[in-house]
Design a protein that fits this description.
four-stranded antiparallel beta sheet; mainly beta; 10 strands; 1 helix; six-stranded mixed beta sheet; 128 residues; single chain
């Protein structure tokens, strides 16, 4: 089992950057692909980016391509989301989650993540 804790959120002006971290407990972190999702008020949770177990493969939503980068350090049991050129529409609570899925097609869906393998979320607010 893995427990996840996000950090790094905050308030930033449009055009700014933030780096989110997701620290995982347990010895099996490298057995899971990791995903980042976000949820704005009144909206459904949406896929942001995902990374394979080894970190060799990533995928991301069209809305963040070229601006957000997902990475991981298996030695530190941590996955990161580097967010650049932030826009007000990026404002949301950001969640990391762990999945045994291996293909990006499945990693884009919240249903591919066990409900017990989600962090508590970290708020990102981008002001205009």
């Amino acid at each position: 089992q893995v427990q996840l804790v996000e950090s790094g959120g905050g308030l930033v002006q449009a055009g700014g950057s933030l780096r989110l971290s997701c620290a995982a407990s347990g010895r099996t972190f490298s057995s899971y692909a990791m995903g980042w999702f976000r949820q704005a008020p009144g909206k459904e949770r949406e896929f942001v980016a995902a990374i394979s177990r080894s970190g060799s493969s990533t995928c991301s939503a069209d809305s963040v391509k070229g601006r957000f980068t997902v990475s991981r350090d298996n030695a530190k049991n941590t996955v990161y989301l580097q967010m650049n050129s932030l826009k007000p529409e990026d404002t949301a609570v950001y969640y990391c989650a762990a999945s045994v899925a291996t293909v990006c097609y499945y990693l884009r869906s919240t249903s591919s993540y066990d409900r017990d393998y989600w962090g508590q979320g970290t708020q990102v607010t981008v002001s205009s």
